[in-house]
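The records we work with from here on pair a chain with its fold. Taken together, the tokens spell out the fold as the letters spell out the chain. The record below shows the convention in full.
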Amino acid sequence: MKKFFMFVFAVVLLVATIVPIAACAETTGLNITAKEAVLMSEDGQVLFEHNATDKRPIASMTKIMTLLCTYDAIDAGKISLGDDVIASQRAASMGGSQVFLDANATYKLENLIKSIVVCSANDSCVAVAEHVCGSVEGFVETMNNKAEQLGLVATHFENCTGLPAISQYSCAKDVGIMLSKLIEHPHYFTCSNIWMEDFVHPSGRITGMTNTNKLIRFYDGCDGGKTGYTSEAQHCLAATAKRGDTRVIAVVVGAPDSKTRFKEVSEMFNYAFANYESKVYLDGNSVLDEVSVQGGKSETVGIKADGKLIAFGKKGSVYVKLNVNLPDNVKAPIVKGDRLGTAQLTDVDGKVIDEVNLVAKTDVNAKTYWDYIRDIVCER
């Protein structure tokens, strides 16, 4: 069994509190008038909450789950962005926000997704749901299964649009979790940053789209989110913003008017960026010691991380350790990208916060018979 050694970089790495306690209005100065609110880090740490698990209608924020289940189907290879989608009569007849799909016309799935993200198109939601599962009802079942899989505490879906339904509800915290999962899909951001764009129908007809999330234009760092409004749900907004390496998510449910939802999410963002941070302690560009190679044409091999080690928390309040675990040596041959060790961030109690693999930077071929002969000759 190979003997492993550990470099412990205990160089007092200042970072925020690893598990911050959710704050209330008295300690944050936030004055939230919406019925519910939550502020969370990208990895799900709750920084502020207000009635965050009360069951309420969430209007078009439902589409966050619609998009998430669609991306899941893409990841699973069931569908692809380039798919042709035929808009059914049911899809074309949807009310509310829409891009006015033509019944029986064929649209690209990627464009339908874009219309859902940008202008909250109900008709596109139905067309996509039918394409993914064959029926809206089957897709809604998928949505509820996903909610259970994510451990959502107060969520149930009856449709894929967010239009009023008696037994459809969620809560601010669950919406925040859904959005945190949605933004793991890179394609989402190719749509969410669009402010205005034309939706071109197969006939050549054009429907103008304007992003319902005004913060992508008016808040520095906001690059995604989803609005919602019905008379029952009132004004809702889930949004995400990133500055530097720090990304946060804020949700309000049941704000009295549209201006308030944008204002209160902006205020939660301001609080988060003023008081919390994400610090990168290791990434693919970090310099690490080389590892000795036995029987290789090179005596050592360079090491790099295959991802980032990031710690999020309150600014300047606790210490973390970076632990690099590598073997004393490795045997050739080695292929670039081979896993040779791990690196971890641990808190003061030794609990692992994050972990990445350490991989070989280059190939190292095994020595041949003639390489060994040459070495003997050179030694003489």
In short: The chain has a mean pLDDT of 90. The longest helix spans residues 258-275.
